[in-house]
Design brief:
Shape: globular
Number of strands: 3
Order of helices and strands: HEHHEHHHHEHHHHHH
Strand content: under 5%
CATH class: Mainly Alpha
CATH superfamily: Rhodopsin 7-helix transmembrane proteins
Number of domains: 1
Length: about 325
């Protein structure tokens, strides 16, 4: 592998990604579990999408929303993990300006799209449990289509300035990114310009989008919990909670992983720099691998659909 000093002499029309600068010797060992998780994520989401597509009984709004979540997971995985594995296996560390900022845009926008999809799914469960008689008239295929447009448009528009602001900075000489992926802060701090506004915009936009989604999710589940506690029919409460169990578990995991990532970045002076890098990679890999498995195990209709699919093969 070429030394970092050689990288700095390259023309600044591309960047070089240096994964785990302090522990490059064990990158090849790390590639094995990452590869297995990547295959699991792609396979599980692929099976889930095919099952929902082919099983007519799953052509309902709730499963369309789940398909949207799987599509977002697949794109996030394909945006990050293949490049990371290429670095580990083949030392392909260079990435063009365009590819770097495109990756930055997809990571920022699709992460918030996933959060927004969880919010829409929470509303779907709220209507199903708190207003069951009105559910067919509120949660329709048209509602899902409008929700999908809202999820994509809102988060793409708010996330687009992040890579634009970063790409308009002047990169004088340094082009070595001490990360496996093109995060905004990892790239923009290489610039010789002031990046205060760049960092401020990402902070405000990110927490406005994610924070508003989290507040609405908490409100939805508060109303759901209140409605469930009022159910007096035997087994009604357990049945109602079971329809939300897998969804709530995935939201909790998504929020917990994100919170851990934020805390480690805030405390990066006390934590080895390679830890946030690893957590950032895992955040783009573990939820996509976990989401379809949890739904497949906990949702009876999906489990039956997968069994039907396997019988056809």
């Amino acid at each position: 592998m070429a030394s970092p000093s050689n990288y700095s002499t390259a023309p600044v029309f591309e960047f070089f990604l240096i994964c785990f600068p302090n522990y490059q010797s064990w990158q090849h060992w790390l590639s094995l579990p990452l590869s297995l998780l990547f295959i699991l994520a792609m396979g599980a989401n692929g099976i889930l999408l095919i099952t929902i597509r082919l099983d007519a009984s799953l052509h309902e709004p709730m499963y369309y929303l789940l398909s949207l979540l799987s599509l977002l997971d697949v794109v996030l995985c394909l945006t990050v993990i293949p490049k990371v594995l290429a670095i580990f296996w083949f030392e392909l560390r260079s990435i063009s300006f365009f590819a770097c900022f495109l990756q930055m845009f997809i990571m920022n926008s699709f992460l918030t799209m996933e959060s927004c999809t969880f919010m829409v799914m929470a509303y779907d469960r709220y209507v199903a449990i708190c207003h069951p008689l009105r559910y067919p008239s509120i949660i329709t295929d048209q509602f899902v289509a409008r929700a999908a447009i809202f999820v994509v448009a809102r988060n793409a528009l708010f996330s687009l300035p992040v890579p634009i602001l970063s790409s308009r900075l002047r990169y004088c000489a340094e082009n070595i990114i001490k990360n496996c992926i093109c995060t905004n802060l990892s790239v923009s701090k290489l610039s010789c310009d002031d990046i205060t506004f760049n960092r401020l915009y990402q902070f405000v936009a990110g927490w406005t989008l994610l924070g508003s989604d989290l507040i609405l999710i908490v409100l939805s589940y508060s109303f759901i919990l209140r409605a469930v506690l009022r159910l007096k029919a035997e087994g009604a409460a357990a049945k109602a909670l079971s329809t939300c169990g897998s969804h709530f578990f995935l939201i909790l995991f998504f929020s917990t992983v994100l919170l851990v990532l934020v805390i480690t970045n805030l405390a990066r002076k006390r934590i080895p720099p390679d830890v946030p890098i690893l957590l950032n990679i895992l955040h783009h890999l573990i939820p996509p691998a976990l989401n379809p498995i949890v739904y497949g195990v906990r949702t009876k209709e999906i489990k039956q659909g997968i069994l039907k699919l396997l019988r056809r093969l």
